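Appendix B, record 7
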Amino acid sequence: QVQLVESGGGTVHVGESLRLTCTCTGLSGVVFTKQRVGWDRRAPGKEVGRVAKNDIGIETRDVGSVKGRFTLSRDDVRNTLYLQVNNLTSEDTALYFCSLGTSWGQGTQVTVSA
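C-alpha cells (predicted):
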C-alpha cells in the first residue's frame, strides 16, 4: 500500500523559505517515475488548491498565485518529492500535502507570521 509522509513544515516569518519533503513508501508494483505527482494546500476557510504538479512527460510547473515562488522537484532514486517554497506570505499559511497517482499524504502545516 502506497504511503506518503510529508515533513518540513513549521512556523516562519514573511519572506522566509522552507523545503517540504514527501517520502513515498510501499511502492511495490508501482513505478515511481511513471506517476503523476503534485503538491496541494488547504488554507483556513478555503478549498484545496494545487500549487505544483509534474505530469508524465511534462516539465514540472507551479501554478496559480505561487508561480515563480514554489518549485516541485523529485528524487527518483529515493522516491521522494520536494516543494521549495520561497518568499512566503501570510496567504501561504496552509496545510500542504503531496500526491502520487491517486494516493495522498496527511499533510504538513506551514504557518507564516508577520
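Remarks on this record: The chain has a mean pLDDT of 86. The chain is about 0% helix and 50% strand.
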